[in-house]
Protein backbone atom coordinates (compact mmCIF):
# COMPACT_ATOMS: atom_id res chain seq x y z
CA UNK A 1 0.00 0.00 0.00
CA UNK A 2 1.16 3.54 -0.76
CA UNK A 3 1.07 6.04 2.07
CA UNK A 4 0.76 9.71 1.21
CA UNK A 5 1.78 12.30 3.81
CA UNK A 6 0.54 15.80 3.06
CA UNK A 7 -0.11 19.26 4.49
CA UNK A 8 3.20 19.42 6.32
CA UNK A 9 6.32 21.52 5.77
CA UNK A 10 9.01 19.14 4.51
CA UNK A 11 12.65 19.95 5.25
CA UNK A 12 14.28 17.51 2.83
CA UNK A 13 17.92 18.05 3.93
CA UNK A 14 18.94 17.03 0.39
CA UNK A 15 22.04 18.66 -1.08
CA UNK A 16 19.98 21.71 -2.08
CA UNK A 17 18.37 21.89 1.39
CA UNK A 18 14.99 22.13 -0.30
CA UNK A 19 11.96 22.97 1.81
CA UNK A 20 8.43 22.20 0.59
CA UNK A 21 5.74 24.15 2.39
CA UNK A 22 2.42 22.34 1.93
CA UNK A 23 4.51 19.47 0.63
CA UNK A 24 3.83 15.83 0.01
CA UNK A 25 5.73 12.61 0.54
CA UNK A 26 4.67 9.28 -0.96
CA UNK A 27 6.05 6.09 0.59
CA UNK A 28 5.74 2.55 -0.68
CA UNK A 29 7.49 -0.57 0.67
CA UNK A 30 9.57 1.57 3.01
CA UNK A 31 10.99 3.75 0.23
CA UNK A 32 10.24 7.36 -0.76
CA UNK A 33 8.49 7.39 -4.16
CA UNK A 34 7.77 11.10 -4.31
CA UNK A 35 8.81 14.16 -2.32
CA UNK A 36 7.91 17.67 -3.37
CA UNK A 37 5.08 20.16 -3.46
CA UNK A 38 1.53 18.85 -3.30
CA UNK A 39 0.80 17.29 -6.71
CA UNK A 40 -2.69 15.90 -7.37
CA UNK A 41 -1.47 13.99 -10.43
CA UNK A 42 0.75 11.82 -8.22
CA UNK A 43 -2.21 10.39 -6.31
CA UNK A 44 -4.15 7.21 -7.01
CA UNK A 45 -7.52 6.19 -5.59
CA UNK A 46 -6.01 3.39 -3.45
CA UNK A 47 -3.55 5.64 -1.59
CA UNK A 48 -3.71 5.86 2.19
CA UNK A 49 -3.69 9.57 3.01
CA UNK A 50 -2.15 10.92 6.23
CA UNK A 51 -2.94 14.57 6.95
CA UNK A 52 0.00 16.12 8.83
CA UNK A 53 -1.92 19.33 9.61
CA UNK A 54 0.90 21.89 9.63
CA UNK A 55 3.55 19.66 11.19
CA UNK A 56 7.23 20.00 10.32
CA UNK A 57 8.74 16.93 8.69
CA UNK A 58 12.44 16.19 8.53
CA UNK A 59 14.65 13.15 8.05
CA UNK A 60 15.20 11.01 11.12
CA UNK A 61 18.27 12.17 13.04
CA UNK A 62 21.47 10.14 12.80
CA UNK A 63 23.46 9.61 16.00
CA UNK A 64 26.97 8.68 14.85
CA UNK A 65 28.36 7.72 18.26
CA UNK A 66 26.44 6.16 21.16
CA UNK A 67 26.65 3.45 23.82
CA UNK A 68 23.11 2.20 24.44
CA UNK A 69 24.26 -0.58 26.77
CA UNK A 70 25.42 2.12 29.19
CA UNK A 71 22.00 3.76 29.45
CA UNK A 72 21.38 2.22 32.87
CA UNK A 73 24.52 4.03 34.06
CA UNK A 74 22.97 7.48 33.52
CA UNK A 75 24.12 9.80 36.26
CA UNK A 76 27.27 7.99 37.35
CA UNK A 77 30.41 10.04 37.79
CA UNK A 78 29.70 13.72 37.24
CA UNK A 79 32.63 16.13 37.45
CA UNK A 80 35.27 13.55 36.46
CA UNK A 81 37.84 13.50 33.67
CA UNK A 82 37.60 10.70 31.07
CA UNK A 83 40.31 8.38 32.41
CA UNK A 84 39.23 8.14 36.08
CA UNK A 85 35.56 8.14 34.97
CA UNK A 86 36.24 5.12 32.72
CA UNK A 87 38.46 3.15 35.07
CA UNK A 88 36.78 3.79 38.43
CA UNK A 89 33.13 4.04 37.32
CA UNK A 90 32.31 2.64 33.87
CA UNK A 91 34.49 -0.47 33.60
CA UNK A 92 33.80 -1.83 37.15
CA UNK A 93 30.03 -1.32 36.64
CA UNK A 94 29.99 -2.91 33.17
CA UNK A 95 31.76 -5.92 34.66
CA UNK A 96 28.63 -6.52 36.81
CA UNK A 97 26.29 -6.69 33.82
CA UNK A 98 24.10 -9.67 33.03
CA UNK A 99 21.85 -10.25 30.01
CA UNK A 100 18.81 -8.73 31.70
CA UNK A 101 20.63 -5.50 32.57
CA UNK A 102 22.13 -5.24 29.08
CA UNK A 103 18.77 -5.83 27.39
CA UNK A 104 16.84 -3.30 29.47
CA UNK A 105 19.67 -0.80 29.13
CA UNK A 106 19.59 -1.15 25.33
CA UNK A 107 15.79 -0.89 25.22
CA UNK A 108 15.79 2.20 27.44
CA UNK A 109 18.45 3.78 25.23
CA UNK A 110 16.61 3.08 21.98
CA UNK A 111 13.31 4.20 23.54
CA UNK A 112 14.86 7.56 24.34
CA UNK A 113 16.42 7.79 20.88
CA UNK A 114 13.19 7.03 19.02
CA UNK A 115 11.08 9.38 21.14
CA UNK A 116 13.54 12.22 20.50
CA UNK A 117 13.68 11.65 16.73
CA UNK A 118 16.77 9.52 16.18
CA UNK A 119 16.18 6.80 13.57
CA UNK A 120 19.77 5.59 13.05
CA UNK A 121 22.73 5.16 15.36
CA UNK A 122 26.27 3.92 15.30
CA UNK A 123 26.60 2.24 18.64
CA UNK A 124 29.50 0.68 20.54
CA UNK A 125 28.76 -2.28 22.76
CA UNK A 126 30.73 -3.85 25.55
CA UNK A 127 28.84 -7.14 26.00
CA UNK A 128 30.95 -8.98 28.59
CA UNK A 129 29.43 -12.28 29.69
CA UNK A 130 25.96 -11.71 28.26
CA UNK A 131 23.71 -13.44 25.76
CA UNK A 132 24.33 -11.22 22.76
CA UNK A 133 21.54 -12.82 20.71
CA UNK A 134 18.95 -11.76 23.30
CA UNK A 135 20.17 -8.15 23.28
CA UNK A 136 20.33 -7.98 19.48
CA UNK A 137 16.84 -9.47 19.21
CA UNK A 138 15.55 -6.78 21.58
CA UNK A 139 17.26 -4.00 19.60
CA UNK A 140 16.02 -5.42 16.31
CA UNK A 141 12.43 -5.42 17.61
CA UNK A 142 12.54 -1.67 18.35
CA UNK A 143 12.66 -0.78 14.65
CA UNK A 144 15.80 1.37 14.85
CA UNK A 145 18.42 1.23 12.10
CA UNK A 146 22.18 1.56 12.22
CA UNK A 147 25.42 -0.20 12.98
CA UNK A 148 26.27 -1.89 16.27
CA UNK A 149 29.80 -2.85 17.14
CA UNK A 150 31.37 -5.11 19.75
CA UNK A 151 34.13 -3.26 21.60
CA UNK A 152 37.64 -4.69 21.50
CA UNK A 153 39.93 -4.18 24.53
CA UNK A 154 43.35 -5.52 25.51
CA UNK A 155 42.46 -6.22 29.13
CA UNK A 156 43.22 -9.34 31.18
CA UNK A 157 45.26 -12.41 30.30
CA UNK A 158 46.40 -13.31 26.78
CA UNK A 159 43.62 -15.89 26.71
CA UNK A 160 40.99 -13.31 27.70
CA UNK A 161 42.22 -10.91 25.04
CA UNK A 162 42.04 -13.66 22.41
CA UNK A 163 38.50 -14.52 23.53
CA UNK A 164 37.49 -10.84 23.28
CA UNK A 165 38.80 -10.64 19.70
CA UNK A 166 37.04 -13.87 18.75
CA UNK A 167 33.77 -12.65 20.27
CA UNK A 168 34.10 -9.35 18.39
CA UNK A 169 34.69 -11.16 15.10
CA UNK A 170 31.76 -13.52 15.72
CA UNK A 171 29.57 -10.52 16.48
CA UNK A 172 30.73 -8.63 13.36
CA UNK A 173 29.92 -11.66 11.20
CA UNK A 174 26.68 -12.85 12.83
CA UNK A 175 24.90 -9.50 12.89
CA UNK A 176 26.24 -8.01 9.66
CA UNK A 177 22.73 -8.29 8.24
CA UNK A 178 20.26 -8.20 11.11
CA UNK A 179 16.61 -7.24 11.68
CA UNK A 180 15.58 -7.35 7.99
CA UNK A 181 18.78 -5.55 7.06
CA UNK A 182 18.02 -2.54 9.27
CA UNK A 183 21.05 -3.26 11.44
CA UNK A 184 24.61 -4.01 10.51
CA UNK A 185 27.93 -4.09 12.33
CA UNK A 186 31.26 -2.29 12.52
CA UNK A 187 34.55 -3.33 14.09
CA UNK A 188 35.29 -1.31 17.21
CA UNK A 189 38.70 -1.31 18.84
CA UNK A 190 37.86 0.90 21.86
CA UNK A 191 40.86 3.26 21.52
CA UNK A 192 44.59 3.31 20.95
CA UNK A 193 45.16 3.56 24.71
CA UNK A 194 43.05 0.50 25.66
CA UNK A 195 44.12 -1.70 22.71
CA UNK A 196 47.54 -3.23 22.10
CA UNK A 197 49.09 -2.83 18.64
CA UNK A 198 48.31 -6.50 18.12
CA UNK A 199 44.60 -5.94 18.89
CA UNK A 200 44.49 -2.95 16.55
CA UNK A 201 46.13 -4.91 13.73
CA UNK A 202 43.71 -7.79 14.34
CA UNK A 203 40.77 -5.31 14.27
CA UNK A 204 41.91 -4.19 10.82
CA UNK A 205 42.08 -7.80 9.70
CA UNK A 206 38.51 -8.45 10.90
CA UNK A 207 37.23 -5.29 9.17
CA UNK A 208 38.92 -6.20 5.89
CA UNK A 209 37.84 -9.86 6.01
CA UNK A 210 34.19 -8.96 6.63
CA UNK A 211 34.18 -5.72 4.63
CA UNK A 212 33.09 -3.59 7.58
CA UNK A 213 33.81 -0.08 8.78
CA UNK A 214 35.98 0.60 11.81
CA UNK A 215 34.61 2.68 14.70
CA UNK A 216 37.13 3.87 17.32
CA UNK A 217 37.53 6.58 19.99
CA UNK A 218 40.45 8.70 18.79
CA UNK A 219 42.16 11.97 19.72
CA UNK A 220 39.73 12.58 22.58
CA UNK A 221 41.98 14.10 25.27
CA UNK A 222 45.39 15.67 25.81
CA UNK A 223 46.16 12.80 28.17
CA UNK A 224 45.56 10.25 25.38
CA UNK A 225 47.94 12.10 23.04
CA UNK A 226 50.65 12.25 25.74
CA UNK A 227 50.22 8.57 26.60
CA UNK A 228 50.41 7.36 22.98
CA UNK A 229 53.34 9.65 22.25
CA UNK A 230 55.19 8.30 25.30
CA UNK A 231 54.50 4.67 24.33
CA UNK A 232 54.93 4.78 20.56
CA UNK A 233 56.72 8.04 19.75
CA UNK A 234 53.86 9.31 17.56
CA UNK A 235 50.46 10.91 18.11
CA UNK A 236 47.31 8.71 18.09
CA UNK A 237 46.26 9.47 14.48
CA UNK A 238 49.67 8.53 13.07
CA UNK A 239 49.80 5.47 15.35
CA UNK A 240 46.41 4.32 14.01
CA UNK A 241 47.39 5.06 10.41
CA UNK A 242 50.65 3.09 10.66
CA UNK A 243 48.76 0.07 11.94
CA UNK A 244 46.50 0.18 8.88
CA UNK A 245 43.36 1.37 10.66
CA UNK A 246 42.43 3.76 7.88
CA UNK A 247 42.85 1.17 5.13
CA UNK A 248 39.05 0.80 5.04
CA UNK A 249 36.32 3.32 5.87
CA UNK A 250 36.75 4.42 9.49
CA UNK A 251 34.72 6.67 11.77
CA UNK A 252 36.53 8.15 14.74
CA UNK A 253 34.62 9.40 17.74
CA UNK A 254 35.75 12.81 19.06
CA UNK A 255 38.78 14.20 17.18
CA UNK A 256 39.13 16.87 19.87
CA UNK A 257 42.93 17.00 20.03
CA UNK A 258 44.14 17.22 16.43
CA UNK A 259 46.85 19.24 14.73
CA UNK A 260 46.96 20.28 11.06
CA UNK A 261 49.10 17.32 10.08
CA UNK A 262 46.59 14.93 11.64
CA UNK A 263 43.66 16.65 9.93
CA UNK A 264 45.53 16.22 6.63
CA UNK A 265 45.89 12.48 7.33
CA UNK A 266 42.20 12.13 8.18
CA UNK A 267 41.25 13.96 5.00
CA UNK A 268 43.62 11.98 2.77
CA UNK A 269 42.39 8.66 4.22
CA UNK A 270 38.68 9.63 4.05
CA UNK A 271 38.33 9.10 7.80
CA UNK A 272 35.00 10.33 9.12
CA UNK A 273 34.51 12.09 12.47
CA UNK A 274 31.68 11.69 15.00
CA UNK A 275 31.52 15.00 16.89
CA UNK A 276 30.22 14.62 20.47
CA UNK A 277 30.22 18.20 21.80
CA UNK A 278 28.36 17.68 25.09
CA UNK A 279 30.29 14.61 26.20
CA UNK A 280 33.56 16.36 25.33
CA UNK A 281 32.52 19.35 27.45
CA UNK A 282 31.21 17.30 30.37
CA UNK A 283 34.33 15.12 30.64
CA UNK A 284 36.51 18.22 30.37
CA UNK A 285 38.09 16.90 27.16
CA UNK A 286 37.79 20.14 25.19
CA UNK A 287 36.14 21.46 22.05
CA UNK A 288 36.64 19.78 18.68
CA UNK A 289 37.43 22.24 15.89
CA UNK A 290 34.79 20.94 13.49
CA UNK A 291 35.13 23.99 11.23
CA UNK A 292 38.68 23.00 10.28
CA UNK A 293 37.55 19.42 9.57
CA UNK A 294 34.72 20.63 7.34
CA UNK A 295 37.09 23.02 5.52
CA UNK A 296 39.16 20.00 4.55
CA UNK A 297 36.10 18.17 3.24
CA UNK A 298 36.11 15.58 6.05
CA UNK A 299 32.73 13.92 6.57
CA UNK A 300 31.43 14.87 10.02
CA UNK A 301 28.42 13.54 11.90
CA UNK A 302 27.07 14.34 15.34
CA UNK A 303 26.89 11.89 18.22
CA UNK A 304 25.75 11.98 21.81
CA UNK A 305 28.20 9.41 23.22
CA UNK A 306 26.67 7.43 26.12
CA UNK A 307 24.27 8.94 28.63
CA UNK A 308 26.80 8.39 31.42
CA UNK A 309 28.71 11.35 29.96
CA UNK A 310 25.99 13.50 28.34
CA UNK A 311 23.46 12.74 30.04
CA UNK A 312 20.83 12.15 27.36
CA UNK A 313 20.39 11.06 23.74
CA UNK A 314 18.70 14.29 22.62
CA UNK A 315 20.25 14.99 19.20
CA UNK A 316 18.54 18.40 18.96
CA UNK A 317 20.37 19.53 22.09
CA UNK A 318 23.56 18.10 20.64
CA UNK A 319 23.33 19.83 17.28
CA UNK A 320 22.47 23.16 18.92
CA UNK A 321 25.53 22.82 21.18
CA UNK A 322 27.69 21.98 18.15
CA UNK A 323 26.62 25.16 16.35
CA UNK A 324 27.05 27.38 19.43
CA UNK A 325 30.51 26.01 20.20
CA UNK A 326 31.93 26.80 16.75
CA UNK A 327 30.54 30.33 16.88
CA UNK A 328 32.05 30.86 20.33
CA UNK A 329 35.34 29.19 19.47
CA UNK A 330 35.92 31.51 16.50
CA UNK A 331 34.03 34.56 17.84
CA UNK A 332 32.30 34.36 14.44
CA UNK A 333 28.51 33.96 14.29
CA UNK A 334 28.67 32.70 10.71
CA UNK A 335 30.41 29.46 11.71
CA UNK A 336 28.39 26.22 11.39
CA UNK A 337 25.24 27.76 9.92
CA UNK A 338 21.73 26.52 10.63
CA UNK A 339 21.41 24.38 7.44
CA UNK A 340 24.98 23.14 7.88
CA UNK A 341 24.51 21.85 11.42
CA UNK A 342 21.16 20.25 10.54
CA UNK A 343 22.93 18.45 7.68
CA UNK A 344 25.56 17.12 10.10
CA UNK A 345 22.80 15.57 12.23
CA UNK A 346 21.08 14.03 9.18
CA UNK A 347 22.56 13.56 5.70
CA UNK A 348 26.25 14.04 6.51
CA UNK A 349 25.98 11.82 9.58
CA UNK A 350 24.42 9.06 7.47
CA UNK A 351 27.20 9.39 4.88
CA UNK A 352 29.84 9.39 7.61
CA UNK A 353 28.58 6.06 8.90
CA UNK A 354 28.34 4.57 5.42
CA UNK A 355 24.54 4.66 5.19
CA UNK A 356 23.76 7.18 2.44
CA UNK A 357 20.34 5.60 1.86
CA UNK A 358 19.01 7.47 4.91
CA UNK A 359 19.49 11.01 6.30
CA UNK A 360 17.55 13.00 3.69
CA UNK A 361 14.11 12.97 2.12
CA UNK A 362 14.79 12.02 -1.49
CA UNK A 363 13.23 9.63 -3.98
CA UNK A 364 14.50 6.03 -3.61
CA UNK A 365 15.86 6.65 -0.12
CA UNK A 366 14.45 4.93 2.98
CA UNK A 367 11.30 6.58 4.32
CA UNK A 368 12.96 7.48 7.66
CA UNK A 369 11.35 10.68 8.86
CA UNK A 370 10.03 12.47 11.94
CA UNK A 371 7.38 15.09 12.58
CA UNK A 372 7.19 17.98 15.02
CA UNK A 373 3.91 19.68 15.82
CA UNK A 374 4.56 23.36 16.61
CA UNK A 375 0.92 24.17 17.38
CA UNK A 376 0.24 24.97 21.05
CA UNK A 377 3.98 25.21 21.73
CA UNK A 378 4.89 28.79 22.67
CA UNK A 379 8.62 28.12 22.27
CA UNK A 380 8.06 27.24 18.58
CA UNK A 381 5.95 30.30 17.75
CA UNK A 382 5.72 32.25 15.53
CA UNK A 383 6.40 29.53 12.98
CA UNK A 384 7.74 31.66 10.12
CA UNK A 385 11.43 30.91 10.80
CA UNK A 386 10.89 27.20 11.37
CA UNK A 387 14.34 26.21 10.10
CA UNK A 388 15.93 28.32 12.81
CA UNK A 389 13.61 26.79 15.41
CA UNK A 390 14.77 23.29 14.41
CA UNK A 391 18.27 24.21 15.57
CA UNK A 392 17.73 26.78 18.31
CA UNK A 393 14.29 26.15 19.84
CA UNK A 394 13.22 22.52 19.31
CA UNK A 395 14.09 19.80 21.80
CA UNK A 396 13.77 16.06 21.42
CA UNK A 397 10.63 16.23 23.57
CA UNK A 398 8.85 18.08 20.74
CA UNK A 399 9.03 15.08 18.40
CA UNK A 400 5.55 13.82 17.62
CA UNK A 401 5.80 10.94 15.10
CA UNK A 402 8.67 8.78 13.91
CA UNK A 403 8.69 6.55 10.83
CA UNK A 404 11.45 4.13 9.94
CA UNK A 405 11.36 2.57 6.48
CA UNK A 406 7.76 3.69 6.27
CA UNK A 407 6.73 1.96 9.50
CA UNK A 408 5.49 4.18 12.30
CA UNK A 409 7.44 3.54 15.52
CA UNK A 410 6.34 6.64 17.47
CA UNK A 411 2.83 8.11 17.37
CA UNK A 412 1.94 11.28 19.26
CA UNK A 413 5.11 10.92 21.35
CA UNK A 414 4.31 7.32 22.34
CA UNK A 415 6.60 4.52 21.24
CA UNK A 416 4.74 1.73 19.45
CA UNK A 417 7.56 -0.84 19.47
CA UNK A 418 8.78 -0.72 23.09
CA UNK A 419 6.74 -1.14 26.28
CA UNK A 420 7.95 2.12 27.85
CA UNK A 421 6.31 1.58 31.24
CA UNK A 422 7.86 -1.87 31.67
CA UNK A 423 11.32 -0.83 30.47
CA UNK A 424 11.42 2.18 32.82
CA UNK A 425 10.27 0.17 35.81
CA UNK A 426 12.76 -2.64 35.06
CA UNK A 427 15.62 -0.16 34.55
CA UNK A 428 15.02 1.23 38.04
CA UNK A 429 14.80 -2.23 39.59
CA UNK A 430 17.92 -3.51 37.81
CA UNK A 431 20.04 -0.44 38.49
CA UNK A 432 19.77 -1.27 42.20
CA UNK A 433 21.56 -4.58 41.50
CA UNK A 434 24.68 -2.69 40.48
CA UNK A 435 27.11 -1.79 43.25
CA UNK A 436 28.65 1.67 43.13
ZN1 LIG B 1 32.18 6.79 23.31
What can you see in these coordinates?
There is one protein chain. By secondary structure, this protein is α/β, with parallel strands linked by helices. It folds into two domains: 2-59 and 360-415, Roll (Urease, subunit C, domain 1), CATH 2.30.40; 61-352, Alpha-Beta Barrel (TIM Barrel), CATH 3.20.20. It has helices spanning 82-94, 99-115, 132-142, 158-174, 197-210, 222-232, 236-242, 260-268, 277-282, 290-295, 315-330, 338-344, 347-352, 386-392, 420-431, and strands at 2-11, 19-28, 31-37, 48-51, 56-59, 61-66, 118-125, 145-152, 183-189, 214-218, 250-254, 272-275, 300-302, 369-372, 399-404, 407-411, 414-415. The strands form three sheets. Strands 1, 2, 3, 4, 5, 14, 15, 16 and 17 form a nine-stranded mixed β-sheet that branches. A hairpin with a 7-residue loop joins strand 1 (2-11) and strand 2 (19-28). Helix 4 (158-174) runs parallel beside helix 5 (197-210). The radius of gyration is 21 Å and the shape is globular. The protein starts with a strand and ends in a 5-residue tail after the last helix. The mean pLDDT is 97. The chain binds zinc ion (ZN). Zinc ion (ZN) is lined by residues 65, 67, 217, 253, 305.
Amino acid sequence: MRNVYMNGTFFTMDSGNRIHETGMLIEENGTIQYIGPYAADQLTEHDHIVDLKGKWVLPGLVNTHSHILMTILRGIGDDMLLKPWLTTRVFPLEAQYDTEIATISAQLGVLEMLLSGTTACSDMFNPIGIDVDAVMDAIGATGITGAISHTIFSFGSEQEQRANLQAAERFAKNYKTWADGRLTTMVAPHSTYTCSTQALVESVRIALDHKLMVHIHLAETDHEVEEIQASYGVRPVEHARRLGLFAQPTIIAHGVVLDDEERAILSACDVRVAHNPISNLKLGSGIADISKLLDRGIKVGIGTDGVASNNNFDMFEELRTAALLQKGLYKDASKLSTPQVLALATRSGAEAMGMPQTGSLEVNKHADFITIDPSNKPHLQPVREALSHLVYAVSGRDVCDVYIRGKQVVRNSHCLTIDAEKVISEANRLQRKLKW
